[in-house]
Amino acid sequence: MNILWIQNGRVIDPANKRDAISDLYAVDGQIVDSLSEAQQAAATVVDAKGLVVAPGLVDIHVHFRDPGQTHKEDIRSGTEAAAAGGFTSVVCMPNTGPVCDNAGTIQRIMDKVARAAVIRVYPTGCLTVGMQGEQLAPTGQLKKAGVVAMTDDGKCVQSNEIMRRAVEYAQMFDLPIMDHCQDASLTEGAMMNEGEWSLRLGLQGWPKAAEDIIVARNVILAELTGAHIHMQHISSARSVDLLRRAIDRGVSVSGEASPHHIEFTDADLHDYDTVFKMNPPLRTDADRLALIEGLVDGTLSCIATDHAPHSPTEKDQEFDYAPFGVIGLENSLASCLTTLYHGKHLGLSEVIALMTHKGAEVCKLDAGTLSVGAAADICLFDPDEEWTVDSNKFFSKSRNCPWHGKTLKGVVKATYVGGEQVFDGSSITV
């Protein structure tokens, strides 16, 4: 019998409105409300005095590049990075090589997960065949193969007719739809946010309207079909407003913010550093503050990293040729604590909620809580300890981290999956 007894920690479980100094117990991988005397004698005891004991973090938007681009990341390195960041459940995007538009590719990924993953990994399926936006993918087969959501993330379905049918079909199989909101006709050749800094740097601008138009399209389609559409990595103040107005009138839509979009702005590209090149691009400070406001008032339902690894040689080239994307799993908790909690925008429980059960609810995952009977997926962290990010020490294979060299507050001390420790504060333990 595997018995875990975490003592003296500040147990914060936002889903159950729990926030108190207390003990937490797990038996054979599940949370229990107490231990017998015999179980106490046999338990592995962890003293969490001074630490927060929270549900394992949940990220519904990661790229592990497996299969197809494993020189950037693979299931093992990606899940090690996630565990080091306090994550116990992640949802992988389908833009692999080949893309996840058939049951065979999903099975290949799940076989690799069973062999190599140190945390829980959930796959998504493509909305369209080949992510080309022209023909619907076999949603029923993908659902049977185990996908938890449908998305063409990395691309956006440009045809409103195809998107409508994809949404209706996914709804038939009770699968959430997640969309990368980008009107491609407005972003061809675009490198960064359209505005003062794109003019200063001489780089082609990426208008916010490219995102806003698709968010508006999806609001209309959600209202028309009754399906739930989740907007990925929102970056624009107007998109936040569109979502807020839609939610207020009862439309079934939601959105996520990424840690980099709530901390950095387009001004951070002042020296052409490609580590700050991402899709969607960093926007203005007004947009950044609007995203934070959206998290505070509930318009944006969760935080997701959009962990997008690239090799150093790919990023180390002229700005126009470097790929879009940043990594963030190993420092995202610290970044969000620094920006939102220590920045006095949100309470500690509210930040944890955005990084646990609220994301899990979007994809209908049984994760993100410390309820009795739930899986003993747990994160222990010190919310006040400072550290300086050194991406060269990351478990991820890639180093394209915009926080490299920055001092943040919040250190993960241990991560448990099913009651078994997978990260001890410095190393992977499985």
UniProtKB/TrEMBL annotation:
Descriptive protein name: Dihydroorotase
Keyword Hydrolase in record: yes
GO MF annotation, one: dihydroorotase activity
InterPro entries with a match to the protein in the record: Amidohydro_3, DHOase, DHOase/Allantoinase_Hydrolase, DHOase_cat, Dihydroorotase_CS, Metal-dep_hydrolase_composite, Metal_Hydrolase
CDD domains documented for this protein: DHOase_IIa (cd01317)
Cofactor comment text: Binds 2 Zn(2+) ions per subunit.
Residues that bind substrate: 63-65, 95, 279, 310, 324-325
Swiss-Prot/TrEMBL catalytic activity: (S)-dihydroorotate + H2O = N-carbamoyl-L-aspartate + H(+)
UniProt keywords, alphabetically: Hydrolase, Metal-binding, Pyrimidine biosynthesis, Zinc
Cofactor(s) needed: Zn(2+)
Family from the record: Belongs to the metallo-dependent hydrolases superfamily. DHOase family. Class I DHOase subfamily.
Annotated Zn(2+) 2 binding sites: 153, 180, 233
Database matches in SUPFAM superfamilies: Composite domain of metallo-dependent hydrolases (SSF51338), Metallo-dependent hydrolases (SSF51556)
Catalytic residue positions: 306
Known function: Catalyzes the reversible cyclization of carbamoyl aspartate to dihydroorotate.
Species: Thalassobacterium maritimum
Domain Amidohydrolase residues, every copy: 344-423
This enzyme's EC code(s): 3.5.2.3
HAMAP family, alphabetized: PyrC_classI_B
Domain annotation Dihydroorotase catalytic: ranges: 52-237
Keyword Transmembrane helix among UniProt keywords: no
Pathway terms, separated by semicolons: Pyrimidine metabolism; UMP biosynthesis via de novo pathway; (S)-dihydroorotate from bicarbonate: step 3/3
Sequence positions that bind Zn(2+) 1: 61, 63, 153, 306
